Amino acid sequence: MTTHSVTRAPAAHFDFHALLRPVLTGLRFTGHFLVALVSVIFLGSASEH
């Protein structure tokens, strides 16, 4: 029984990592996009005043 849970843990961990990698890449891209968007809005409102 313990052997079954031990062999299952690395598979679940690898699956989690494989699922997490595209999510992190998407978050990184979204973060850069949001930073660019906020900076454009901030610079636009700053130039108006």
From TrEMBL:
Query: Do the record's keywords include Membrane?
Result: yes
Top-rank lineage group of the source organism: Bacteria
Keywords from the UniProt entry: Membrane, Transmembrane, Transmembrane helix
Where is the chain membrane-spanning? 29-46
- In Swiss-Prot or TrEMBL terms, this protein is called Uncharacterized protein
Lineage of the organism: Bacteria, Bacillati, Actinomycetota, Actinomycetes, Pseudonocardiales
